[in-house]
């Protein structure tokens, strides 16, 4: 985590010419070579289980997990070592008011195993690296580092993968099993989920992102992760363009109670960031639309993980009791600073509809917490 010590040699290894010009796309099957989990939560009773899978059964994958906090996207980085068909899991929970990451997985870096088994206070770990943040909720990125073509689908000892990782840190890419055919990691290798209480959210997967084997000091577990370094500026901008939108529409019921839209603004680290937006609330009662447009000046969305309460929006209408079921459109979403794609440009985000509160299943079982996730298709 953030020592920010990049030698000129390491940078030249990481920022060299791209080996492939494959366009970046959002995966339709949930697997890819770069992953973003739009949200995790560790507030009170909210607890997040994180699962990352290597879907290849004849290839090992080295990757780096960046857990990013909600305010400025400061991160805690974890290298993971996935043998063929391997799964890495971890948990982020509120422990006495602290967001604590725990993992007993054998795919963790040897230097982190004991810390993760005891539980890593993400706020403290980030502060020790010189960054402040609130990790009670945030989002997660999974960066591809390298893929190794194994001769069989049997188990690969983790010590072997760690040794290969250490070679890459030194800039040594001579391993004969290292995949070098115009990709670092192929676009079907990684898939993941976040389970928050009773809600399951699949990570957004991208293909065509990994076009290099990443090596040099920056991949070490003690160093910062930046998309420019691990993905390259071109690929980063391609992802931002894919996620660039100006509006979304979401349904609501019960006056929007316990319903939220989470806006995940990726790749930004600006303390002064905010986004403008306007709102329309429509009610479909008796096939008649009633509309409310938020007055000027437009509202703003601070933070890298911005949360908007649908109930709060409904309560701003002229007669909230009439707006119990319908559609809310959040539109004209534009950046107010030069992060992401620039001031005045459409923002780049992943929107997610989250329903909280108490829920009764058809069997009569009672749940409390997050129980429904839905990726919202942006216009």
Can you walk me through this structure?
The chain has 379 residues and is mainly beta. The protein has two domains: 8-242, no CATH class; 245-375, no CATH class. Helices cover 14% and strands 38% of the residues. It has seven helices and 25 strands. It has helices at residues 8-14, 113-118, 122-128, 158-169, 227-230, 233-242, 310-315; strands at 25-26, 34-41, 47-54, 59-69, 75-82, 87-95, 98-102, 120-121, 137-149, 190-196, 199-202, 204-207, 244-245, 248-252, 259-264, 275-283, 290-293, 299-301, 305-309, 326-335, 347-348, 350-355, 358-360, 366-368, 372-375. A hairpin with a 5-residue loop joins β4 and β5. The longest helix has 12 residues, at 158-169. The protein is globular and about 70 Å long. The two termini are 36 Å apart.
In short:
This protein has 379 residues and is mainly beta.
Which labels suit this protein?
about 375 residues, 6-stranded antiparallel beta sheet, about 15% helix, globular, disordered N terminus
Number of strand segments: 25
Supply the helix-strand structural class: mainly beta
> How many domains in all?
2
Integer-rounded radius of gyration: 21 Å
- Helix coverage percent of residues? 10-25%
> How much strand?
35-45%
Biggest pleated sheet: 6 strands, antiparallel
Mean pLDDT across residues: 85
For the largest sheet, list the strands in their spatial order.
1-12-2-9-4-5
**Helix run count:** 7
The coarse overall form would be globular
Distance between the termini: 36 Å
